[in-house]
Amino acid sequence: MSPSMNNGMRVVRRALGVCAALLLLAGPVLAGQNQPPQPQDEFVPVGNSPAPEQIPAAPLLIGAYIVVLGGLFFYVLSLSRRLGAVQQDVQRLEGELKRRGRS
Amino acid sequence: MPKWFTPAAILCGLMFIISPVLIARAPDEAAMGMVYKIYYYHMPSAWMFLLAPLVCGVSSAFFLARGRAEDDRRAWAAAELTVLFGALTLITGPLWARRAWGTWWVWDARLTSSLVGWMIGWAYLILRRYGGPGSDKLAAGVALFGAVNVPFIYISVNYWRTIHPPTTVVPKLRADMGVPLWFCVFAFLLLFILLMTMRLRLEHARTRLDAMYVALDE
Fold this sequence. Notes:
The complex is a heterodimer. By secondary structure, chain A is an all-alpha fold. Chain A has helices at about 5-30, 55-100. Chain B is mainly alpha-helical.
């Protein structure tokens, strides 16, 4: 085997060794991660005692509704403007075509 | 616009005015408190976000098979609504999650696949805008991937480990929580139909305009 091939094999062996070490290390690291809380599979109405509030809910709730209604409003506005501009161009060109005696 | 458009638009506007009243009257949720009420706009947005890429994908499949411009126009209109409703879903979700989960975002299957679906919608629009000649068929191919992603988004909460509520939440809702939700779903569905109609009309007007420019040049 030539020296260059020996060097190549050495590099491949080192790369494989590094990969194996990373795989061995990844297992415990992943296993050590915190488990996420379980999902709710049912929404239950609140009873007499209100739920504890750590993060204020009102700004998030109001913010969400503003985002949805605002987003929809601006999209309808943009669509109306685009439609209006194209229809104006269509009318202008219709006039131009009529002037030239085409339909 | 078709004759039904104006009455439907008035009805839709009324539904959006009434919906906050119904939502305010719904009880708070035991674990999450009142922040869960984001759900009443988040979930209908999310359903429209699933419906739009399906319409886009099916229309694109028809366009690839038959080559009819009408299918292509419908796909383009639906792609824009994918991006719109995707944005609303992906913004309202984290606002809810911040209070309910204590974090804005988790890289679970539902949230990640939703983000991918939204980016596919953007990819479609960018291709149509900057792709040049032939981009209609390329974009149609992209739309097929967007449609295939939809069932994956829907079932992801039932099959993969996640803190996102599963799909079983909706059928289990008590009437005082469920009625406002279905009211909002119908309001969003009506809005989706109205927006599709408006967007399709824009595409028809553009096609007509292009034909007129060609006629003027001849």
